[in-house]
Amino acid sequence: xxxxxxxxxxxxxxxxxxxxxxxxxxxxxxxxxxxxxxxxxxxxxxxxxxxxxxxxxxxxxxxxxxxxxxxxxxxxxxxxxxxxxxxxxxxxxxxxxxxxxxxxxxxxxxxxxxxxxxxxxxxxxxxxxxxxxxxxxxxxxxxxxxxxxxxxxxxxxxxxxxxxxxxxxxxxxxxxxxxxxxxxxxxxxxxxxxxxxxxxxxxxxxxxxxxxxxxxxxxxxxxxxxxxxxxx
Length: 232
Fold this sequence. Notes:
Blueprint: E1 4-6, E2 9-11, H1 14-22, H2 28-42, H3 45-55, H4 63-77, H5 81-91, H6 94-97, H7 100-116, H8 120-137, H9 142-149, H10 168-185, H11 193-209, E3 212-213, E4 216-217, E5 225-226
Parallel strand pairs: 2-3
Antiparallel strand pairs: 1-2, 4-5
């Protein structure tokens, strides 16, 4: 394959690597199922319907149920935690009843939204009435509660050490946790397979880095192969 030696590592040139890749055949049906799994798990209902029509790939689930799940997610991402919790209870009340950590994080998000709105007194009352008892039952929640209440101690909250709690990413984190719980309750996968495959690709490259210099994928968005350094 025209391999050279660079120190103790074998060097695999780009041409040889591409030749090997060209010999690998992935059935189109497998690729289509991977795409459909991503669309269904992430809640892209209309895209899933269109993809089913164009590719003939069945979604494997009731797409109307996805719409309900996405309404929960949208409510939480908009900061309407109470509406999200009500919708979850309509879908399956056991989700919140059987998962104390998820329930705490939703209540924590309610506290964050009160602080965001400037309702200091209401936030303190809510923390004392609803979150403090949860932290007493489970000390693991205490640090998160203290960090959230610390938002009230800063005049410029967003510039504070705990300002990240007010970022959109915090809402997204809570929404993803709730979304995964709903999927689990519906006997569906918690995460789409595509990101897991990408993580596996990165892991495989790290393992191979120890043994050879080869064309690597540096940017997952483009999947462009970067040739290895030339052997001296």
